[in-house]
Amino acid sequence: MDKVTYNGMTFVPYIKESTIQGRITEIAAQITNDYSGLRPLFLCVLTGAFPFAADLFRSVGIDAEISFIRLKSYEGTSTTGKVKEVMGLTENLEGRDVIVIEDIVDTGTTIKELVEDLKAKGTASVKVASLLFKPESLLHDVKPDYTGFSIPSKFIIGFGLDLDGLARNLRDIYVLEEK
Ligand SMILES: O=P(O)(O)OC[C@H]1O[C@H](OP(=O)(O)OP(=O)(O)O)[C@H](O)[C@@H]1O
Ligand code: HPA
């Protein structure tokens, strides 16, 4: 794995694809066990979560459905603090067991708003599976129920995570190089 550069910023290798896949398999096994006999609805938060959602959803061993919502709050490497719904939900969520799939919980702003919204829609339960979690960046009292990797508060890209729309197609995860 070599360094990569986007918009003049250099990123160094951080988490390998094989390590990511191994962790996704473990989370899928946990979900398979926790939701046995239920038919959960996975809700993928576009855009960043799509590679994680595809791999996680295909690894669970129970009947399940998947749907998508598109939320946006980041510009460059920082949050705007405002979560914009770019594409909404069409499903009736009443009585459903929902598992939100996120690529990252950073300040927690996106997940806090989304989970509150989903609970207000009459869901039976709402849990969050996030590939990455930055506990030291949290601005709200939230925490994923299933976490791939807890990481320090550094900007990362790859495996769905972007810098202004780029780098989502990297198979591995990279972190911004320290100067
Ligand atoms: O915990 P937070 O500080 O709210 O950050 C997490 C959110 O930020 C990213 O989305 P972004 O707005 O960059 O949209 P994207 O998925 O289209 O890249 C990521 O996919 C999460 O949804
Ligand atoms: O570290 C990050 N990288 C890319 N997108 C993000 N959205 C929240 N945090 C991040």
UniProtKB/TrEMBL annotation:
Keywords, ordered alphabetically: Cytoplasm, Glycosyltransferase, Magnesium, Metal-binding, Nucleotide-binding, Purine salvage, Transferase
Picking any one GO molecular function of the record gives:
glycosyltransferase activity
Domain (Phosphoribosyltransferase): give its ranges.
23-162
Which EC number(s) are documented for this chain? 2.4.2.8
UniProt pathway: Purine metabolism; IMP biosynthesis via salvage pathway; IMP from hypoxanthine: step 1/1
Q: Where in the cell is it found?
A: Cytoplasm
The question of whether Nucleus is a record keyword is answered with no
Where does the source fall among the domains of life?
Bacteria
Q: What is its main location?
A: cytoplasm
> Pfam families from the entry?
Pribosyltran
> InterPro entries from the entry?
HGPRT, Hxn_phspho_trans, PRTase-like, PRTase_dom
List the catalysed reactions.
GMP + diphosphate = guanine + 5-phospho-alpha-D-ribose 1-diphosphate; IMP + diphosphate = hypoxanthine + 5-phospho-alpha-D-ribose 1-diphosphate
Q: What class of enzyme is it?
A: transferase
Q: Which cofactor does it need?
A: Mg(2+)
Q: Does the keyword Nucleotide-binding apply?
A: yes
Family under the similarity heading: Belongs to the purine/pyrimidine phosphoribosyltransferase family.
Q: Mind telling me what this protein is named?
A: Hypoxanthine phosphoribosyltransferase
Q: Which species does this protein come from?
A: Heminiphilus faecis
